[in-house]
């Protein structure tokens, strides 16, 4: 078995996040966030402990800081709150984002001294705590995106920020903030950087871009397009190398690196897909994870190098993964998977368990131990 537990928690879930020891989970349901006493164990019973009520529109994103234990939420009401647990009560602090459209998603930085908010205002808010005034301050990356920003992902170095947008592009920005980040953090593989500077723009998708994530080392990046493509960018820097796989199934919505050479993705097929990189660095589709569907029996991926795609681009490899149809019934999810989260300590180099949530209101736990061991024997 790959999926080990499924929990129906709402009619629709727009986001979820785990605490550091995986004993509690925060789930976005409409304009509230419900916190459950949870466990990845198959037989565990999840009891609701808290309800966070401050937003008056859909809560579109939540993230739980592992060290500080702060929860950050964002909503279509254009506001954000940072929640702190005091005497078993979650106390909110309003963060003024200064945006005129909905907040879409949110993510704490690795050092938890900042968080980034994607918005429908074609901008990204990078928020940090200002101790002198005892409030959270927002700095905005403006005039770079052509449409709604759908996702944000922090590089492990705490200063590079990747974004995806409905203008079909993935970008990498500098989120270095003087006085918040160390002076040495301003020097990266791109040289000296300043806040808001666009370092890379990737034009690989022909549809809306979603679900951007970094690999554990930060050397690779992956995101998906609404044109049923998934894009892998290696050697991220001034001259990255990109590979695109065009899928014959429905579009994906989110991705998660399990290690430097393995990745899972989920979307409108309601069934997580496993990808792996071989010894040549070529990414290939491996199989669907939900045993309710027939795994691909004949997967072929042809790749070829194409012309350089700009100053900050390397060579692009495009391939087509020919999977068998994935419309068989009986999957754990019965509507689109919108989010994948690791069930592992921060900084873990290999993830064996992860959770998915989506528009069917379910949270499903997946255990990759058996598959990971089989792939290891095959050298993948």
UniProtKB/TrEMBL annotation:
<keyword id="KW-0963">Cytoplasm</keyword>
<keyword id="KW-0009">Actin-binding</keyword>
<keyword id="KW-0677">Repeat</keyword>
<comment type="similarity">
    <text>Belongs to the WD repeat ARPC1 family.</text>
</comment>
<keyword id="KW-0853">WD repeat</keyword>
<feature type="repeat" description="WD">
    <location>
        <begin position="52"/>
        <end position="86"/>
    </location>
</feature>
<dbReference type="InterPro" id="IPR036322">
    <property type="entry name" value="WD40_repeat_dom_sf"/>
</dbReference>
<dbReference type="InterPro" id="IPR017383">
    <property type="entry name" value="ARPC1"/>
</dbReference>
<dbReference type="GO" id="GO:0005885">
    <property type="term" value="C:Arp2/3 protein complex"/>
</dbReference>
<dbReference type="GO" id="GO:0051015">
    <property type="term" value="F:actin filament binding"/>
</dbReference>
<comment type="function">
    <text>Functions as a component of the Arp2/3 complex which is involved in regulation of actin polymerization and together with an activating nucleation-promoting factor (NPF) mediates the formation of branched actin networks. Arp2/3 complex plays a critical role in the control of cell morphogenesis via the modulation of cell polarity development.</text>
</comment>
<keyword id="KW-0206">Cytoskeleton</keyword>
<comment type="subunit">
    <text>Component of the Arp2/3 complex composed of ARP2, ARP3, ARPC1/p41-ARC, ARPC2/p34-ARC, ARPC3/p21-ARC, ARPC4/p20-ARC and ARPC5/p16-ARC.</text>
</comment>
<dbReference type="Pfam" id="PF00400">
    <property type="entry name" value="WD40"/>
</dbReference>
<dbReference type="InterPro" id="IPR015943">
    <property type="entry name" value="WD40/YVTN_repeat-like_dom_sf"/>
</dbReference>
<comment type="function">
    <text>Functions as component of the Arp2/3 complex which is involved in regulation of actin polymerization and together with an activating nucleation-promoting factor (NPF) mediates the formation of branched actin networks.</text>
</comment>
<protein>
    <recommendedName>
        <fullName>Actin-related protein 2/3 complex subunit</fullName>
    </recommendedName>
</protein>
<dbReference type="GO" id="GO:0034314">
    <property type="term" value="P:Arp2/3 complex-mediated actin nucleation"/>
</dbReference>
<dbReference type="InterPro" id="IPR001680">
    <property type="entry name" value="WD40_rpt"/>
</dbReference>
């Amino acid at each position: 078995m790959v999926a080990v537990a499924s929990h129906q928690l709402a009619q629709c879930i727009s986001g979820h996040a785990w605490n550091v020891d995986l004993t509690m989970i925060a789930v976005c349901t409409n304009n509230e966030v419900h916190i459950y006493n949870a466990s990845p164990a198959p037989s565990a019973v999840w009891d609701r402990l808290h309800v966070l009520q401050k937003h008056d529109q859909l809560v579109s994103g939540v993230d739980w800081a592992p060290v500080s234990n702060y929860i950050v939420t964002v909503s279509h009401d254009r506001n954000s709150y940072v929640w702190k647990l005091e005497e078993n009560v979650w106390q909110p602090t309003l963060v003024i984002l200064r945006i005129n459209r909905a907040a879409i998603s949110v993510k704490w930085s690795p050092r938890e001294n900042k968080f980034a908010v994607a918005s429908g205002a074609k901008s990204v808010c990078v928020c940090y705590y200002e101790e002198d005034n005892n409030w959270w301050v927002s700095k905005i990356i403006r005039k770079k995106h052509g449409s709604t920003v759908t996702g944000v992902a922090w590089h492990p170095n705490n200063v590079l920020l990747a974004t995806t947008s409905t203008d079909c592009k993935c970008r990498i920005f500098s989120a270095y903030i003087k006085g918040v980040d160390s002076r040495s953090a301003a020097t990266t593989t791109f040289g000296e950087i300043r806040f808001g500077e666009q370092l890379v723009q990737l034009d690989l998708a022909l549809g809306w871009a979603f679900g951007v994530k970094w690999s554990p080392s930060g050397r690779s990046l992956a995101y998906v397009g609404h044109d049923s493509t998934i894009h892998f960018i290696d050697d991220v820097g001034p001259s990255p190398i990109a590979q695109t796989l065009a899928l014959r199934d429905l579009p994906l919505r989110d991705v998660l690196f399990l290690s430097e050479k393995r990745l899972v993705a989920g979307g409108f097929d309601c069934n997580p897909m496993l990808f792996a990189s071989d010894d040549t660095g070529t990414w290939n589709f491996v199989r669907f994870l939900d045993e309710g569907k027939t795994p691909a029996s004949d997967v072929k991926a042809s790749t070829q190098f194409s012309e350089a795609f700009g100053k900050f681009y390397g060579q692009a490899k495009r391939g087509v993964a020919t999977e068998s149809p994935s419309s068989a019934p009986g999957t754990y999810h019965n509507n689109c998977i919108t989010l994948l989260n690791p069930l592992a300590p921060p900084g873990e180099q290999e993830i064996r368990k992860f959770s998915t949530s989506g528009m069917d209101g379910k949270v499903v736990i997946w255990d990759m131990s058996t598959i990971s061991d089989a792939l290891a024997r095959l050298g993948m």
